[in-house]
Amino acid sequence: MVKKNTVIPKATAKRLPLYYRFFQNLSLSGKERVSSAEISEGLNIDSATIRRDLSYFGALGKKGYGYNVNYLVSFFAQLLHKNEGSSIALIGVGNLGTALINYNLRKDEKTKIKIAFDVDSNKIGKINDIDVYHLDQLEEKLISEKIEAVIMAVPAQFAQDVVDRLANTNVRGILNFSPVRLTAPKEIRVHYIDLTVELQALMYYLTNYK
Amino acid sequence: MVKKNTVIPKATAKRLPLYYRFFQNLSLSGKERVSSAEISEGLNIDSATIRRDLSYFGALGKKGYGYNVNYLVSFFAQLLHKNEGSSIALIGVGNLGTALINYNLRKDEKTKIKIAFDVDSNKIGKINDIDVYHLDQLEEKLISEKIEAVIMAVPAQFAQDVVDRLANTNVRGILNFSPVRLTAPKEIRVHYIDLTVELQALMYYLTNYK
DNA sequence: CTATGTGAATTTATTCACAGCA
DNA sequence: TGCTGTGAATAAATTCACATAG
After folding, report:
1. CATH number of the structural domain A10-78
2. Is the pLDDT of residue A99 over 70?
């Protein structure tokens, strides 16, 4: 039985993609059942937390048996790809952008970069199967391709300008790699990935914990 | 007065680098005082949380005035660069690695990539002022350069092999960009940055919250 | 008056511990 | 018997609200 309409705690939501990949890997390696204790081992998360997390979606497991790996994989695929139609654009095809495009090609993932933009005319065309347009066409293409989320990988000083141009599109989410805090309309959710921040956090932990 | 020996909650620790950069930016833009309400506005964190976070380090602010920006900047520099000697190596100089090296050059950051490694002989030498060595020299150089943390940006299938080779070095932290879960000796702390995970999380939030 | 610093209240997340199903 | 799913306990983080210092 699968629950509906339960509000999932944010902390749980953050772990879902982690679970998903873990289950995908198990599946690839041919494992067909898994217990919360094994997941715990693999992901370093307390087994009770894992059972609780999974239980938000109903009884996914069987008592005395554990969880069926393939079932989990298809369940999570459902869950995370729920918003089927929505696709993603990359803005900025520099080293980082190119790395992201390559990352992208992995497997059967549905959460994929669909189109990209840059200002450099050498970049326009196709990179690894992804169409790259000039930034001039940003609004036009975002709308025609029904893009709902963008990845920002442009130099810091241009990031805010680009964000300002997203206001009249359907974009509702930004994954920002540029090392600046962005001001976005409040309908748009911004997530940040900042190498410097991550590095500093790691170093701080190294000296202060464990 | 600055407190000592307080244990800082993990949630606070994660925000420290965010604060730091925010204060640096304020300082650059010439602002000399700031209130928790303004920080709250800029970072989207409740102002009480901010006051609480800062208060773990003692009374950094003045009642009725707020916080002195330059003082904050130098305090945080201290705090986050405490482990002065320690430096960072990059393993894997592909697109992502190169992007990270470029990122690196920003400003006066002390948390910097010092050396890098790759297997491709075309990469060996110098890239943007960073010495790039062949992976064969990994252990030797990590030790001689006293590296305590590494950034992994190698293809997924090689990541674990590299980690296994870190056992006999001084490395205590890994920032892993390769989309695999790593098994590391328990003295080594591993932080993960995984584009797929971040993207899925963003998409999940978009469809399920707010 | 203003904006901090912090007890106290509240909310959110984790973990314990066990009843109960396969 | 072996493991889930979940109440109840605990811990961690956030937020309220205000006395207090400048």
Report:
1. 1.10.10.10
2. yes
